[in-house]
Amino acid sequence: MIVSILFLSIILIILTGIPVGIGLGVVGLAFSIIFEGQSALISLPQTIFSSNNSFLLTAIPMFILMSEILRRANVTEILFDAVTKFVGHLPGGLAVSTVITCAIGASITGSSVANAASMSIVAAPSMIKRGYDRKFTYGLIAASGTLGILIPPSIPMLLYASITEVSIGKLFISGIIPGLVLVTLLCAYVILKEKFFDDSDRKIEKATISAKLKSLKKALPALILPVIVVGGIYAGFFTPTEAAGVGVFFAFVLGFFWYKTLKINDIIPIFKDSLHSTCMILLLIAGSMVLGHAITTLQISDQLVSMISAYDVSKIVFIFLIMILLFVLGCILEVISVIYIVLPVLYPIVVELGINSIWFAIIFIVNMEIALITPPLGMNLYVIGGIAKRPISEVMIGSVPFVLIFLFFLFLLILFPDISTIFIK
Amino acid sequence: MFNFLDKLVSRFSFILQNLAIFAFIILTYSVIYEVVARSILNKPTIWSLEIVTYMISCVAFFGSAYVLRINKHLEVNLFTNILPDNMKFILNFFSNLVAAIFCFIAFYYGCKLINLTYILGVVSVSELRIPVWIPQLTVPIGFFALTLEFLIRIFRIIKFRKKSQ
Q: What is the complex's ipTM, to 2 decimals?
C-alpha cells in the first residue's frame, strides 16, 4: 500500500512540471516527516550535503567535461569522415558509417543525447543529400545515438554503480559486447534494407588505401582515448574519476594541439556548458538521496522483498515485470529520473532473488535506450527534431523499426545473459 | 519593483554560477594533478580527494540556481503543456510554491546545521582538518539562491497571468 502511494506521489509531483530533483526531495521529505516527525527536517541538509560527497560521483562532471571538449573540437566530424572511408562503399554505406561513428562516439561520451546531437549535425545532412529518406535518417541517428549509454563510459552506468555499489570497472566492460551486438544488428538491418527493399543507387566509391590510411591517422588519437579511459579503469590503473580526469586532459591536448580546433576562448564556455549538465544531474541526485532516506526509514524495499517472497515470484517473471515497468516509466520520465526512482526501491529485490547485478544493469540500460527513442518523452527524438528543425513526428515515425530492433535485442539479452557477463566471468 | 528584484536575484545566481565554474576548474585540476602525482611522480597528495569532494558540492549547489533560471533542470512538461491555461497557471503556481518551500526548509535547517557544527568545532577526519561548516555552507547558500529563483518564477507566473487577462 505505502509503496503504491509513494510511487503515485512521485509520478504526480513530477508531472506538475517541478524540477525532478526537487520533486523527489519534496516527496521524500513529506514521507519522512509523516513517519519520523521533526527529526526529518533536521537531517535534511545533512542528507543533501552527503549526497554529492562521493569520489565516484566526481567522475560525472569529468566525463561530461570530456565529452563537451570533444564536441567543441569537432571530433565527431573527423571520426565520421574516417569511418566513411572504410565502410562507405558497402550497401547503405553512409548509414552503416553513421551507426559505427555513433558507437565510437559512444566510447568518448557518456551520454546518448550528446551523441545523437553531434551526429545529427554531422551525419544527417550528408545522408539526406545522398538520397536517404529523412524519417529513416533521423530514426537511425536517434537509435544509434542511444549507444552512448551502453558503450562505456556511460553516465547512467556510473549512477547505477553509485546506487548499487557494483564495480564500475566491471559494469563498463560488460557494456562492450552488448554494444557491439547492437551495432551489428543495426548495421545488418541497414544493409538488408538497402539491398532488398531499396533500389536507389547511392553507393559511395571505394576509397583508396592511401586515403583510408590518411583518415585513420587523423582519427587515431581520438580512437585511443576510450582505450585509455575504459582500459585504465578495468586494468586497475585508475579509479573512474581519475580515468575521466586523464580523459579530460587528453581531450584538451587533442583539441588544442593535435586537431587545433579549440581556442583559448573556448575554455570558459566549455566549463560553463558542462556545469549546466552537471548541476542538473547533481541536484537530481541530492533530491533522490532525500527520497532514499525516506525509503530506508520506511523499510519499503524490505516490504517489497517480503511480498515477492510471499508470492513466490520467479526470477524470469520478476525480470519481465520490471522490464514492462521500466518501459512504461521510460515513456513518461527521463532516464536519470527512472534510475533514481526505481533502483533504490527495486535493487534489494534483485539481490534477494540472486539475479546477477551486472546482467540486470545491462538490461536496465538497454531498456533505457528504448526510453530515449519512444514517445512522448524520448529525449533523442526531441534533440534531433530540434537540431534538424523538423516536426518531431518525422523522427518518431523513423524510430519505430529501431524500437522493434531494440526490443528484439533486449529479449536476446534476457534469454542469453552470457552476452553481458562474458567478460566478468 | 519586480524587474529590480529579478535583476538582483539574477545577479546573485550569476555570481554563484561563476563561483561554481571556478570550483569546477579547481576540481578538474585536482583530479588531473592527483593522477600525475600518484602515477608518475609516485607521490600521492593528501589534499586532492578531500578538495575534490568539497568542490563537487560547490559545483552542485552554487550552480543550481542559475541552471534553474535558464530552465536547464530536468522538468517533465508533458502533462502541463496540454492543460488549459487556467489549470496550467494553478499547477505552475503550486509546483513552484512547493519547490520554494522545500528549498527554504533546506536553507533554514542548513543554517542550523552549520551553527551546530561551528559551535561543536567539528573538523574533517583527514589530515587537512578543515572545519566542516565551511564546505557545508554550500547547502544553505545554494538553497537560498534556489528559493529566490523559485519566488521569482512565482512572481513571473502571476505577472504573465495578469498581462494575459
A: 0.94
